[in-house]
Amino acid sequence: LAKTTQPISMDSYEGQEVNITCSHNNIATNDYITWYQQFPSQGPRFIIQGYKTKVTNEVASLFIPADRKSSTLSLPRVSLSDTAVYYCLVGLNQAGTALIFGKGTTLSVSS
Amino acid sequence: GAVVSQHPSWVICKSGTSVKIECRSLDFQATTMFWYRQFPKQSLMLMATSNEGSKATYEQGVEKDKFLINHASLTLSTLTVTSAHPEDSSFYICSARLPGQGNSPLHFGNGTRLTVT
What mean pLDDT do residues A70-77 have? Predict the structure, then answer.
């Protein structure tokens, strides 16, 4: 399973755009990149996933360069409620396949 | 809405007793479920893969006789912490994928906070 590296922590202010980059140099051909958000005492919540180029949904965008060795989660105009731990996971999104969590990035949003 | 449900959300037990945690897939059948454990200020650690109708697969270092997993139906997996001790106090989280999709992300339950006194 591909190992991921993220910044341990990031700070931001309300209304700013936040970009969290994840490195996954040994990503395999069939691996997908998935990002999760976790609040204290809750299970991780799916944010977005992608394979290549750019993916956008109602809460975030995911940018993946052509070599797929990294990815960037972009959160537009963060609010205080976006304070959480964000995990980047790389692996097969197939039945029977678990995902291994790295250390994640603790995002702190201030007013 | 939630696709994976856990029960209970928190439990306190005395040292030496056993505790059962349930993980249910809502409105879908999950032949495979995954159990994770998370200690304070740490990341999630995969404990085991629960397979319906067969034995669970445990990660290295996880005692299968201590953490009993039963996946008796396609919508329910249970994790029983036997003879619990204070060091087993942790946040236990299960997950599953929606079936029938070639690319399906993991969906997680809301976790169970276990405190052993």
Answer: 97
